[in-house]
Amino acid sequence: MACTVFTIANQKGGVGKTTTAVNLAAALAARKIHTLVVDLDPQANATSALGLEKHEGKSLYGPLRGEGSAFEMLTPTAWPHLALIPSEVDLAAIEIELAQQENYLLRLKTVLDPIRNSGGYRTIIIDCPPALGMLSMNSLAAADHLLIALQCEYMALEGLGQILKVVDRLINAGVNPTLDVGGVVMTMFDSRLNLSRQVVDEVRQHLPDKIFETLIPRTVRLSEAPSFGQPIFAYDPHSPGATAYTALAKEVAARFKLAE
Fold first, then answer.
1. What string of DSSP letters covers 112-124?
2. What are the domain boundaries of the chain?
3. Is residue 18 a contact partner of residue 130, using CB atoms and an 8 Å limit?
4. pLDDT (tens digit, 9 = 90+) per residue, 8-21?
């Protein structure tokens, strides 16, 4: 069965991108869909959110430079069907070094293709840094689908337009001609605020076939879970956040036929 690669990106920080990467991956794994999270952010938030320590030499820094293999970086997590390629601070240096390499936008695709083709995973989820730099561009070049985490705030719509333009550029330049905007995940939704509802309505109007029905609520428990090194399902399985990410995983699995 083919492996589907998603990248979860947004040039803004604090939009629930890593929270979505980790909890969507955990929810897919709970559905027995073999899932790999690739932490491509030098801050390594996805790594710590899955309860793993940062270790020197345990990121894609070496493989992206042509040293070693991504297979060597595969790390099991405490959850069945869920693995991780961790990040650590060395990855920050690759932003500069990649620009000096040939085919610099395709380095990540080249590094991940052997894992993708190995048959070990049904899906790979890449968590990007909060910037449209070299690592994020590589993740877009390596992905089948972009999932945009978008917080329910007014300025979010401006950021949405920017990332959609980047996708168009990568497609038109032939870097990743089949890249698809797979969906928009609305995060930090507060049903008490008119603004939250207005932003969701506006995205629905502009991208009716892309926005997911599931709205991720703004909750303290979702914010707390990473500091305990746990997805929300382990930290508070009965919370609204856990319910929402379970529903989102069901939508993602159906939309992209991951369970077949």
1. HHHHHTTTS-SEE
2. 4-255
3. no
4. 988 776 778 999 99
